Amino acid sequence: MPKISIIIPVYGVEKYIERCAVSIFEQTNKDFEMVFINDCSKDNSEVILLDVISRYKGASIDVRIIQHEVNKGISATRETGLNKAKGEYILYVDSDDYIAPNMVELMVARANDTNADIIYSDYYDLKNGELIYQNQSLSVRDPLLITASMLRSEIVWTPWNKIFKKSLATVHNIHWPININVGEDLVVMSKLFANAKEIEYVNQALYIYNRDNVNSYINSWSVSSCQQSIKAVESVNAFFSDEFPNADLIKSLDKVKLASRYQMLYTFDKNLYKLIPDTFPETDDKIFTFENTSFYWKVALFLVVKKKTILATSMTRAIFLLKKTRAFIQS
């Protein structure tokens, strides 16, 4: 049994799949299997992938390509990989990203030393060709405190800079949510972290996250995406209320809940606007504390919450036009 199953969803990544696959084949520790899931990609991703695999046919690595008969989205694709994995630990790698040559080596070493349920690391953002170091260190060690920090966005809740025991998901019946492809990682990682007995951290950047791929799953924002995100947050909120009735964990979700309300605002969709007052109303008194948006958006959300929808709509469109004008002038 391999120590790690590396699961790589494949969809529309012909520009990046070679770099991703090569970075995995070139690992300094080969105690892993590679499980690619083709989610009905319409481009040449699989052709390029097969070429890379043929170049490494002498490598003692088990490589599988699993085909979806229909496009299912990122969440179901990750679930397929989880179900098919043979390794003790799971590592997800998005196929437009890549990993450091020693990622498996360092993760396996820490796993062997500690037998931790989850191990996570620092990572790089790759933006406009520049690598930007993202430190993920925390001062806490308790799994529930780490979970709370993750909910507050102090560390990322993405699955790709982490390995976790497959048995952790199996024992606690944790699955990737079907029909939720935005915020699905929050749902799964929250449950894994909260149920973990030990979580370890490697203070090196071992994953390179590509922010330049405009065709990635997460860069396709829409009203539907917004609705899926809300479902994800509601799912996490219900999970902690039922399984971990800890006020600190629920309170730690406030930032994520507020972000969901602002995302509803950014769609300019009148039907969504009508739902905002009743969506996470417990964050009404925190609207102006949200750090990741301008004062004008805060006022707009406040007006929507107070059901001054027409005024809020006019204001949000004015903000949008102002940004467009500035972008045009600067171009």
Question: How would you characterize this protein structure?
Answer:
With 331 residues, the protein is α/β, with parallel strands linked by helices. The protein folds into two domains: 216 residues, Spore Coat Polysaccharide Biosynthesis Protein SpsA, Chain A (Alpha-Beta Complex), CATH 3.90.550; 108 residues, no CATH class. Strand 6 and strand 7 form a beta hairpin. The radius of gyration is 21 Å and the shape is globular. The C terminus is likely disordered.
In short:
The chain has 331 residues and is an alpha/beta fold. 45% of the residues lie in helices and 17% in strands.
Helix content, binned percent: 40-55%
Cα-atom radius of gyration: 21 Å
What spatial form do the alpha-carbon principal axes imply?
A: globular
Distance between termini? 55 Å
Overall structural class, as computed from helix and strand content, comes to: alpha/beta
CATH fold-level topology of the largest domain: Spore Coat Polysaccharide Biosynthesis Protein SpsA, Chain A
